[in-house]
Amino acid sequence: MLKAAVLGATGNVGQIFVQLLDGHPWFEVSVVAASERSKGRTYGEASRWRQSTPIPEAVAQMEVVDVTPNAIKDVDVVFSALPSAVAGKTEEDFALAGYVVVSNASAHRMDPDVPMLNPEINCSHVSLIEEQRRKRKWDGAIVTNPNCTTTVLTLPLKPIYDEFGIKSVIVSTMQAISGAGYPGVASLDIVDNVIPYIGGEDEKMETETQKILGSPSEPADLKVSASCNRVPTIDGHMMSVFVEMKKQAESKAVAVAMENFVGEPQKLNLPSAPEKPVVVTQEKDRPQTRLDRMEGKGMSVVVGRIRKDPVLNGIKFVALGHNTIRGAAGCGVLNAEYLKVKKFI
Ligand SMILES: NC(=O)c1ccc[n+]([C@@H]2O[C@H](COP(=O)([O-])OP(=O)(O)OC[C@H]3O[C@@H](n4cnc5c(N)ncnc54)[C@H](OP(=O)(O)O)[C@@H]3O)[C@@H](O)[C@H]2O)c1
Question: Which CATH number, 3.20.20.70, 1.25.40.80, 3.40.50.720, 2.60.40.10, labels domain 2-147+329-341?
Answer without folding.
Answer: 3.40.50.720
